[in-house]
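USER: Fancy drafting a protein?

ASSISTANT:
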Amino acid sequence: MTQTPPSKSAFITGASKGIGLAVARALVHEGYAVTITSRHQDEVEAAAGELAGERQGGQARGVACDVRDAASLQREVDQHVQAYGGLDVLFVNAGVGRFMNVAELSIEDWDSMIQTNLSGAFYTVKAAIGALSQRGGYIFTLSSLAGRNPLPGGGAYNASKFGLNGLSEVLNLDLRDRGIKVTQIMPGSVATHFGGHTPSEADAWKIQPEDIAQLTVDLLNMPERTLPSRVEVRPSRPPRK
């Protein structure tokens, strides 16, 4: 039997686990076809297989892609458009974080965070603008409260997220005449594998990846005339210090 093509599709970076995967799962259940990316081919293919099997008719592609490689991103976005006939949602999620005093921060660590979290976001958006313009799409940039609040040891990470917030605000101004919405989502503590952390029951107080996924779906369902351009998200009951 011929599978009915999906009416909408999404491209999500850094999505073999955590927030990216949760967003992908929520969108598949909303009827979207999704492409998820990761630097690790085996992980992203396994995640895509799970997504496609969770909903009858669900469609998901998993591709290995490093967001620091602009040419690779363009190639994968073009293949997504060819596979699904267009692009409606871009979720810019790929990111890395290492925290140390600036005196100990290596040039390599600085470059890795700036290139992934900031330049990688620009490359991702740049690759997708043409396709998103065709349908009046929606861009989500996954930033952080660290994009407004400096942290000890957060020199490179803070710089990348402050920069991402600035980029997101400019994207809003530059792309709205193309019919593209842009929202920056800025969570606090989220129970993910970020920074080598392993989620556990002790993380129950934190924001869960599914919470960000639900927020994304809710934003997509906002009236067309309305745009929450920046959403800060915090745990409602963090532990007392």
Remarks:
- The radius of gyration is 17 Å.
- The first strand starts at residue 8 and ends at 12.
